[in-house]
Amino acid sequence: MDAVDRQILAELQHDGRLSVTELAERVRLSVSPCHRRRRALEASGAISGYRAQLHAPTLGLGFDALLFVTMRGSDRDTVHAFEAAVVEIPNVVEAQRLFGDPDYMLRVLTRDLAAFQELYDDRLAALPGVQRVSSTLVMKTVAENRPLPI
């Protein structure tokens, strides 16, 4: 990956809807080489996809919570069962396995406190292998969906 590839990636991170022509102009290449480079970046996995960035509060998802999960055990079956169950819950918008304690951090979006309580009671507290869940509310998001430093 050279400087031109990095410039292509930077431009696409800021606007994934750029046409090949617009992208080529921004990185100062002709259309064909720019198109080849973008395809190569996609094939290599450097570009894993394209999607719209949505504003959760506008869509009625104004309640943002972080959950910290400590597992009863760390055996393979328990971890796989927990992770498989987590990805089936649409309100869990981020899930990360951590080193140390706690074992996981989940970011959960719901419409309000009542919806969060229902989700917590019905699904989150019943996740397989969970010993303890603690949660905190997000007061303000300072940085989110930032471009990767390339």
Give the strand content: 15-25%
- Lateral arrangement of strands in the main beta sheet: 2-3-1-4
Largest sheet: 4 strands, antiparallel
- Count of strand segments: 4
Helix content estimate: 25-40%
- DSSP helix count? 5
Low-confidence stretches: none
Shape: elongated
Taken in chain order, the helices and strands follow as HHHEHEEHE
- Termini separation comes to 11 Å
Task: Provide mean pLDDT, rounded.
Answer: 95
Structural category: alpha+beta
Q: Would you mind describing this structure in some detail?
A:
By secondary structure, the chain is of the alpha+beta class. The chain is 38% helix and 20% strand. It is built from five helices and four strands, in the order αααβαββαβ. It has a four-stranded antiparallel β-sheet. The radius of gyration is 20 Å and the shape is elongated. The N and C termini lie close together (11 Å). The model has no long low-confidence stretch (mean pLDDT 95).
Task: Summarize it.
The protein has helices spanning about 5-15, 20-25, 30-45, 75-85, 115-125; strands spanning about 65-70, 90-95, 105-110, 130-135.
Key attributes of the depicted protein:
5 helices; alpha+beta; elongated; four-stranded antiparallel beta sheet; 150 residues
Secondary structure elements and their pairing?
Blueprint: H1 3-14, H2 20-27, H3 31-44, E1 63-71, H4 76-86, E2 92-97, E3 104-110, H5 113-124, E4 130-137
Antiparallel strand pairs: 1-3, 1-4, 2-3
Helix pairs in contact: 1-2, 2-3
